[in-house]
Design a protein that fits this description.
mainly alpha, two-stranded antiparallel sheet, 2 strands, elongated
């Protein structure tokens, strides 16, 4: 029998098997639920950003219209920084469930603004979101196992195993074709909703092709695993338990163990420690001599050395001194902040390596990379916020330290945040 005839025969056989059809329908429904949920979340985030952008512009224009000096303008004006979801984010929301993707920043100390966490859903924080990447990485293998675990054992129990192999003309070819047909059918059921979602969200075809390729390779991997186990001359229950054990090892045990090892190997300063240290530095500055603030500030900004003199306040107030000690507060936690960011990057790099030992985690991370929702993208966005805040400081420092006359028209030159 030719290979094409064998494939056609197995497709017909599969279409008559109600259990297989139910599994395929189940896959199609779960994949659709995951994609629809992702599309809904992305739509919500974009709608939120649209509202915030309008409100942010109106609020800032109103605040600036009432100011008469540069210091007050900097203090009362907020600027929206944000990370819009990519067109493929619906498939893998990744870090967007736990990391902030929008900030309202102003000229005050940055660390307290960038590291504060917004309250999120405790359920999502605990178990994660059911998006396509989670479905494909962790649920799809279970469905495939259910389809293939008794591939041969059921035929042995029915006494048809040897006859089927003899009819096929080549030992083993029948089972390989059956595994291939069922695996491809399952892949199609899983990937169709993803592609439809991609068309709706205008995802690049190259991205959809890459994601589809990753899922196909992943399905083939689990098909090979199931095929190998199904060839063992044991009961269906034994084979099923063994396959579930392999899934648990690769999907739960290895990633959890790797996470414990990585977290132990790469220690991070606590975010609360950064915030507390910075706030203490800023609050203490009110009671310290002006020189305690201006000297470390000038070390970082020598271009303002001749303009940094602050007379003894005697109850008065100097905006340039105020913003200087805001920056000095950031400088005092700079080492902690850098260690925190470097540690997160190092953990992510180690997790990328460890994921090669756990295919479910690897697939999820690769899909998040395609969607721009992985840890690297989050750190990149945070750096954008830092760069924007630095631009704000450069704009206002020149006005404050050079004592330029306040000019409402010059406010049109304020830096604007540009998302990636």
């Amino acid at each position: 029998m030719s290979a094409s005839h064998a494939v056609v025969r197995e497709i017909r056989f599969m279409l008559r098997d109600r259990a297989v059809l139910v599994a395929l329908l189940f896959t199609l429904v779960l994949s659709s639920v995951a994609v629809v949920g992702g599309l809904s979340e992305v739509r919500y985030q974009r709608a939120t950003l649209d509202r915030l952008l309008i409100a942010d512009t109106a609020d800032r224009e109103d605040a600036l219209s009432h100011q008469t000096d540069w210091g007050s303008a900097a203090y009362y004006s907020f600027h929206l920084a944000y990370d819009p979801p990519s067109n493929f984010a619906y498939a893998a929301l990744g870090q967007r469930d736990s990391a902030r993707w929008k900030h309202r920043v102003r000229m005050l100390a940055l660390e307290g603004q960038i590291d504060e966490r917004a309250a999120g859903s405790p359920v999502v924080a605990l178990i994660g979101r059911f998006d396509f990447s989670f479905f494909a990485a962790f649920v799809l293998p279970l469905v495939l196992i259910a389809l293939l675990y008794d591939l041969r054992s059921s035929e042995r129990s029915a006494g048809r195993h040897n006859l089927l192999e003899a009819t096929a003309g080549a030992a083993g070819r029948l089972w390989r074709v059956r595994v291939l047909v069922r695996g491809v059918a399952l892949f199609i059921a899983a990937i169709v909703p993803l592609i439809v979602g991609g068309v709706i969200s205008e995802t690049a075809m190259a991205t959809l092709a890459a994601a589809s390729g990753l899922v196909l390779v992943y399905v083939l991997f689990w098909s090979v695993v199931a095929y190998r186990f199904s060839s063992v001359e044991e009961s269906s229950g034994y084979i099923l338990a063994s396959l579930i054990g392999v899934w648990a090892l690769l999907a739960i045990v290895v990633p959890t163990g790797a996470r414990i090892v990585i977290d132990t190997a790469v220690a991070l300063p606590a975010g609360s420690e950064i915030l507390l240290t910075q706030r203490e530095a800023v609050n203490d500055a009110w009671d310290l001599p002006e020189s305690a603030t201006m000297e470390p500030f000038i070390e970082r900004h020598p271009e303002y050395a001749e303009d940094a003199y602050v007379p003894h306040r005697d109850g008065g107030f100097e905006w340039k001194w105020y913003y200087a000690f805001q920056q000095v507060g950031d400088q005092k936690v700079e080492a902690l902040s850098q260690a925190y960011r470097s540690g997160r990057m190092r953990r992510d790099q180690m997790a990328n390596v460890a994921a090669w030992l756990a295919p479910p985690a690897l697939l999820e991370r690769l899909l998040q990379r395609l969607a721009g929702t992985d840890a690297r993208a989050t750190l990149g966005y945070e750096q954008q916020v830092r760069d924007f805040h630095a631009a704000l400081r450069r704009y206002y420092y020149e006005k404050l330290f050079k004592q330029m006359p306040f000019n409402q028209e010059a406010l049109s030159e304020l830096p604007e945040f540009e998302p990636r």
